[in-house]
Each structure stands twice: as structure tokens, then as C-alpha cells.
Here is the input.
Amino acid sequence: MGMNQVRIAIDGQALDVPAGISVAAAIAQLRLPFRRSVGGQPRTAFCGMGVCFECRVRIDGIAQQRACMVPVREGMQVLTDG
Amino acid sequence: MAEHYDIVIVGAGPAGLAAAEAALGQGARVAWLDAQVTAGGQVWRKDVRYGWPRRVESIVAKLLDHPNATWMPQTQVIAAEQNALLLQDERQALGVTYGALILAAGARELLLPFPGWTLPGVTGAGGLQALAKQGWPLSGRRVVIAGSGPLLLAAAATAKRHGAQVLGIYEQASQAAVHGFARTLWRWPGKALQAAALRCELAGTPYRCGSIVARATGNDALQLIEVDGPNGVQRIECELLAVGYGLVPNVELAQMLGCAMKREAAHPYVAVDDSQRTSIANVYAAGELCGIGGRDCAWLEGRIAGLAATGSAIEASLLRQQRLARRFAANLREHFKLNPCIHDLADPDTLICRCEDVPLRALENFDDARSAKLATRCGMGACQGRVCGTALAELGRFPRSGQRPPLFPARLSTLGDLPSPSDTEGLF
Ligand code: FES
Here is the structure.
């Protein structure tokens, strides 16, 4: 594939992923839930296109980011709400 | 300070790209924006592994290079007033003013509730396709695709390309309806070719008609689904289920601008004339926004809007092709009509509002969205009712209510720039 890798951290765990993938795709590699719903259920990305907000996580300190809309960047710190 | 453009285009799918190309060809100064990081929209979403189709790549490259074009990625419209928009990108809020505005916001999936639809592992059908193209790991995963329409085939093909084991495609329309549709395809040779190519790519993948996913189960993640088909209920173990019941237009911005709407069944779309003019002066709409019409239709209408918005002549052949594309869409809609029993899949405990975890049972005693929202918080969450409001309209519960600014959850610093405070009254 010849894709460059970038290193990010998800919930403190370092992860090398192909450049250009979304934060959602990166989180999916670890098979983590993205968030807990108000009733405590685990949720993951659902619509894939920025509509449902099920994929929201904290990225570099900013909460409520839709992981399916944001590409990974070197050094990115992602916190799920799982 | 708001930057001025002759033409501002919202949405960079086929309609937006065609509009930009046409307007630039007439010498206009154009700003084109999209909420996504790359152009292409959903149907031409760039695949991190396989890139764009070559044609799309060259269209986008030309626009990115054009001296009169300003590309604004990851940008959303937060609020609008006459001839001006308040935008928000990854870093900042910015204002733009325009001579003409072309709305090309496309469509989203019709996602309908059924028991288990909130489990991790359940996505939309177009949703799974979008996630696959973003690099979602699918290699070796057992995937079932279900719902309705040709999008299921496209989603299955993408999933396979990314290494998924597609166990089956379950189409709700009856076999008779799907065959009836196939028999009309000769009238649209381009479509027939596309269908044939997809069929080749999906050789060996079961395609079952008259089949509906009635339930998904699993502990904390999807494990098993129940498919109700012509031969009874079938249980299938899988890790991913992608279900989409077609598309609905993203009309929120057009609604906020006050554009007149029409309705296709329960879902509003923007009313336009032959030149893609909406009811609001200097505001045009093209593509899925004007009723689900598909990619080719979007491209043609985008071009028409780009020409009309720059005061240029529109070739008769363009209008002819557009009408043909609209007829194709009507034909498709007719054959893939939803089986009404899909409206009854949710049971009283099924969560309808995924943002606020509101079950169907809590909504039983309301007959309009507003009172249900005030009492149960249904539709109050981050998605602003885009999923549950659309589903409830489809289920025949409540009609969609109009959108008020901000159109997307906005940062406080952006809201400080909102044109008039009265617009946001009662929102926070
Ligand atoms: S998956 Fe729906 S917004 Fe990201």
C-alpha cells in the first residue's frame, strides 16, 4: 500500500496507523467503544458521515469531536468516553 | 470582516463540484465548502486505500488549482442571513457574503430503529461504506448488508474490496419489484452498465429480496441478527451489520434560509424551477437536496445551477438529460418502496433518540415533535434530531420540524458572531 504511518495515542495507548485514516477508523482498530450513552450503553460510529454524533470523542483536549470527520495527525491524543 | 464571493457553494459532492466547475468557467469568483476534509461528497468519497475514481480526481484537482476558487474544507454553515453566511472551520469562525448561493448539501441515510440498532457493530449501509473508505478495519470481518436500494450493492462492493467477508445482502423490496426495476434499466444504458459491473464484483455474494433485519442482539457488541424473509426467520452470526433504507435530503440550511419545500412521502426537499432557483432570491439548490435523484442527476443539476447563478445560458440538451435522470430516480423510488412493516420493527423499549436514550414507549402520548422534545428530550441531543426526527417522520409519528440556528453544535466563540441574537433565542 505504501502508506505513511503516523503515531497517535488513544486513551494513552500508543498506536501506529496509516496516515489519512479517520480517528474513527483508528479507534476501531482497538475495538473500543467511542462513548457511553446517557443510559450507560457503549456506542460506536454509526452513520460514518457526521450526522449521528455517536462517534464523538475528545481530540487534543477538545471534547465532542466527531471522530468520523477528523483525519489522524502525528502526535494526536484521543480520549474516548467509553 | 466578511469576504465576498460571486458564488458560494455549500457541499462538494457531484452537484457542488459541477456547480463550481460551471461557475468558474464563466469567470466567477467562487468559494466552495464542505464539512468533510476532502471533496467528493458521499458518493465520491475518497478512499484512503484506493483513492478517487480517476474522473473525480481530475475534476477536484482542476478546482483546487483554479485561481478564482477558494476551497474551504471541514467547514460548516452555522447561521445565515440575507446574502451572508456564518461559517465555522476547524480553527475559527468566518463570515462570507455572496452574489449567489448554491446549496448542494446532498443527502444522508434514512436510518430506522429496530431492536438492537444501537449496538456497537451496527452502522448505516452508506455508513459502513464511508467508514470503510476512512480506513475502518474490515479485513476478515463477517458483514451483513441490509435495507433497500442500489446503495446496498455499492456498500457491499466497497466492504469486499476492503477485505470483508460479506455474508449476504438483504433487500426489503420484493423479488418481483427488483426484477421489475432491472427490466426497466435498458432505458438508462449507463445505469445498466454500472449495475452489471457491480454484479460482477459481487459474484458469489448472496442477494436476497423481500428480507428485513428485524432484530440485532449481542452483549455490548453485535453477535447475531434475525432476518425475516420469504422463507421465515433466519439467524445469522456476524460482527457488522450495515442497514440503510435509502436517502433523505439534507434540507436544514435551505429550511433556515426560508426556501419553499415540497415533500416526498414524509421527507421535505427543496422546491426549484428549471434553472434550479429556489423561492429565495439568489439562492439555488441542486442534486439530492431537490429530491433524491442520484449522482448523475446531481452532477447535471449542479452544472445547471452554476450556469444559472452566473447568468449564463443553459443548453437544452443539459435540461433534457436532467429530466431523464429525474425519471430514472422516480422509477427507482417506485420499485424500492419501503414495506410498511419496517415502520413497526421498533418495540416499546427500542431507543428512538440515540443521543438522549429515549425509548419508543416514552413517545407514545405525543403527537408533535415539539411537545415530545420538551417532555422527553427526544431530538435535543447533539445530532439535533437529524436521526430520530427523520425516523419519526418516516414512521408516521411526527412531521419534521424546521431548523433554527446554529445548524450544527457551534463553539461559543462562533456563536458570539451570530448575526442577530434573536435568531438563537430559546436555544441554550
Ligand atoms: S459516525 Fe455519525 S457522526 Fe460520526
